[in-house]
Amino acid sequence: MQRHLILEDGTVFAGESFGAPATTFGEIVFHTAMTGYQEIITDPVYDNQIIVFATPIVGAAGIHAGAYESMKPTIRGMIVHDLAEVSVNRQRRMNLDRFLKQHNIPGLYHVDTRKLIRHLRETGSQKASIVDFADDHAKDQLVATVLTNKQVANTATVKPYANPGRGRHIVVIDFGLKHGILRMLDDYDANVSVMPYTTTVEEVLTLDPDGIVLSTGPGDPRVLPDSVLTLIRVLQTKAPMLGIGLGHELFALANDAELLPLSSEHHGMNHPIEEIVSRQMMYAMQGQGYAVDPESIDRNKLFVTHRDLVDGAIQGLRHRDYPAFSVQFFPDGAPGPLDATTIFADFFDTVEDYVEHVQS
Amino acid sequence: MSKKEVLDNASLQRALTRITYEIIERNKGGQDLVLVGIKTRGEYLAHRIGNRLAQLEDISIPIMAIDVTNFRDDVTNHDSDNLGLNSEDKMNITDKNIVLIDDVLFTGRTIRAALDALIHVGRPKSISLAVLVDRGHRELPIRADFVGKNIPTAQAEHIKVFVKEIDGKDAVEIIN
């Protein structure tokens, strides 16, 4: 069945329907990753967004129980150039079409994604809608729609929970948490407590953490309550801290830096990222619409540790006085190259060092 | 004889990077900071850390190397002229925050010799110690402020640090 993608600026793209025949609204972004569509569509970072895939064929790997980044996908749609038809059988129990149907998420294929992406590169991200008919009514509806800015509240846990291990005690503040981070912490046998982002300093310190992780989130960090920044400002002085994605942006805001919207958002894994201190290069999955404004950094508080070699955007920060650091990209390699997983090794080295320092 | 690699190239780089960050953390702004490498491999490690600091801070931190042979406790002639420091270096030590850098911390006797040597030629504001490997078995009350990796060892084992500049690779091995 033919359905349509309409953009806020009035542009219309036709395509064939797959997944659920639902009508949805969301912010449209394009993703240049060539692998890992399952991780991307289940990543809470893409909450409330319609994702255009630049890679020409999507779906050939099916859907696997081991590759979810959240239990329930909350994207608003998936736009692809071509959809690989894969059979469902005893070995492969799920394919992309069925998966999207189950979660009531619409998809379009046979869309001219090259033209669409070229258009989006010029206009930047905007509101979009997947509809049956691209008539004036649908366009008016889209213009009138106000997208939620409560994405963190929509995806983050409301109750604390534990993911027990026998190693160091890591408290994760959940602003929207992709499973890759829990998987990485598991690699170090960390004893993990996940706390909602509404938690308090007292609650976290009562848990006696050896380290603190600020999770990846979705959305704009500036709409979160100031109490979050106060929480970070206090906790960064108490235990080693690692901020990722939105966690990085919040870490920057808590230390008086400011954010700028990126004119060309990063959604992919093909940007070389430089670790400034060693001049080494790595690749990692990126999903960011904002970047820390270099002009706004107070050099008495923070210094830049990583930068994007394509557009120079800041990719990593570190506090000058505390063992607290953050990365804009996703170092958990789910999906993506595994180069940056050493960020977790750095974090756990810092935790070990801190624990010994405190004990001695 | 058996040998086992305990730090590979990448982990060695990461260890030096972490030490660099920790030096910044504990020396606000890098003012009055001087890196002193203990010859032979400590000197190369001091330059590596110095290069890393320069990447981040846009300031050039003085790096020097000392030869502590004459200050060892099994040598009686303490001749400060053989430290390998020139007169300018000697002036640079007084009132500075010195980070002493060596590859392996073992009995602590080399570090004691280095402390004596430094204090013999100037009066630093402070001296801290950074080592790539702490293998334990101290014979003196000395500990490192910055440790790349703690590697518990047996007395009889030997730790060998390789640096690219003279050994052709970066690695740490335990040799039995």
Automatic annotation (TrEMBL), chain A:
<feature type="binding site">
    <location>
        <position position="217"/>
    </location>
    <ligand>
        <name>L-glutamine</name>
    </ligand>
</feature>
<dbReference type="InterPro" id="IPR029062">
    <property type="entry name" value="Class_I_gatase-like"/>
</dbReference>
<feature type="binding site">
    <location>
        <position position="219"/>
    </location>
    <ligand>
        <name>L-glutamine</name>
    </ligand>
</feature>
<protein>
    <recommendedName>
        <fullName>Carbamoyl phosphate synthase small chain</fullName>
        <ecNumber>6.3.5.5</ecNumber>
    </recommendedName>
</protein>
<feature type="active site">
    <location>
        <position position="332"/>
    </location>
</feature>
<comment type="function">
    <text>Small subunit of the glutamine-dependent carbamoyl phosphate synthetase (CPSase). CPSase catalyzes the formation of carbamoyl phosphate from the ammonia moiety of glutamine, carbonate, and phosphate donated by ATP, constituting the first step of 2 biosynthetic pathways, one leading to arginine and/or urea and the other to pyrimidine nucleotides. The small subunit (glutamine amidotransferase) binds and cleaves glutamine to supply the large subunit with the substrate ammonia.</text>
</comment>
<dbReference type="InterPro" id="IPR036480">
    <property type="entry name" value="CarbP_synth_ssu_N_sf"/>
</dbReference>
<feature type="binding site">
    <location>
        <position position="246"/>
    </location>
    <ligand>
        <name>L-glutamine</name>
    </ligand>
</feature>
<comment type="subunit">
    <text>Composed of two chains; the small (or glutamine) chain promotes the hydrolysis of glutamine to ammonia, which is used by the large (or ammonia) chain to synthesize carbamoyl phosphate. Tetramer of heterodimers (alpha,beta)4.</text>
</comment>
<feature type="region of interest" description="CPSase">
    <location>
        <begin position="1"/>
        <end position="168"/>
    </location>
</feature>
<feature type="binding site">
    <location>
        <position position="290"/>
    </location>
    <ligand>
        <name>L-glutamine</name>
    </ligand>
</feature>
<dbReference type="GO" id="GO:0044205">
    <property type="term" value="P:'de novo' UMP biosynthetic process"/>
</dbReference>
<dbReference type="GO" id="GO:0006526">
    <property type="term" value="P:L-arginine biosynthetic process"/>
</dbReference>
<dbReference type="GO" id="GO:0006207">
    <property type="term" value="P:'de novo' pyrimidine nucleobase biosynthetic process"/>
</dbReference>
<dbReference type="InterPro" id="IPR006274">
    <property type="entry name" value="CarbamoylP_synth_ssu"/>
</dbReference>
<comment type="similarity">
    <text>Belongs to the CarA family.</text>
</comment>
<dbReference type="Pfam" id="PF00988">
    <property type="entry name" value="CPSase_sm_chain"/>
</dbReference>
<dbReference type="InterPro" id="IPR017926">
    <property type="entry name" value="GATASE"/>
</dbReference>
<comment type="pathway">
    <text>Amino-acid biosynthesis; L-arginine biosynthesis; carbamoyl phosphate from bicarbonate: step 1/1.</text>
</comment>
<dbReference type="GO" id="GO:0004359">
    <property type="term" value="F:glutaminase activity"/>
</dbReference>
<dbReference type="GO" id="GO:0005524">
    <property type="term" value="F:ATP binding"/>
</dbReference>
<dbReference type="Pfam" id="PF00117">
    <property type="entry name" value="GATase"/>
</dbReference>
Automatic annotation (TrEMBL), chain B:
<comment type="function">
    <text>Also displays a weak uracil phosphoribosyltransferase activity which is not physiologically significant.</text>
</comment>
<dbReference type="Pfam" id="PF00156">
    <property type="entry name" value="Pribosyltran"/>
</dbReference>
<dbReference type="InterPro" id="IPR050137">
    <property type="entry name" value="PyrR_bifunctional"/>
</dbReference>
<feature type="short sequence motif" description="PRPP-binding">
    <location>
        <begin position="98"/>
        <end position="110"/>
    </location>
</feature>
<dbReference type="GO" id="GO:0004845">
    <property type="term" value="F:uracil phosphoribosyltransferase activity"/>
</dbReference>
<keyword id="KW-0805">Transcription regulation</keyword>
<protein>
    <recommendedName>
        <fullName>Bifunctional protein PyrR</fullName>
        <ecNumber>2.4.2.9</ecNumber>
    </recommendedName>
</protein>
<keyword id="KW-0808">Transferase</keyword>
<dbReference type="GO" id="GO:0003723">
    <property type="term" value="F:RNA binding"/>
</dbReference>
<keyword id="KW-0328">Glycosyltransferase</keyword>
<dbReference type="GO" id="GO:0006353">
    <property type="term" value="P:DNA-templated transcription termination"/>
</dbReference>
<dbReference type="InterPro" id="IPR000836">
    <property type="entry name" value="PRTase_dom"/>
</dbReference>
<keyword id="KW-0804">Transcription</keyword>
<comment type="similarity">
    <text>Belongs to the purine/pyrimidine phosphoribosyltransferase family. PyrR subfamily.</text>
</comment>
<keyword id="KW-0806">Transcription termination</keyword>
<keyword id="KW-0694">RNA-binding</keyword>
<comment type="function">
    <text>Regulates transcriptional attenuation of the pyrimidine nucleotide (pyr) operon by binding in a uridine-dependent manner to specific sites on pyr mRNA. This disrupts an antiterminator hairpin in the RNA and favors formation of a downstream transcription terminator, leading to a reduced expression of downstream genes.</text>
</comment>
<comment type="subunit">
    <text>Homodimer and homohexamer; in equilibrium.</text>
</comment>
<dbReference type="InterPro" id="IPR023050">
    <property type="entry name" value="PyrR"/>
</dbReference>
<feature type="domain" description="Phosphoribosyltransferase">
    <location>
        <begin position="4"/>
        <end position="159"/>
    </location>
</feature>
<dbReference type="InterPro" id="IPR029057">
    <property type="entry name" value="PRTase-like"/>
</dbReference>
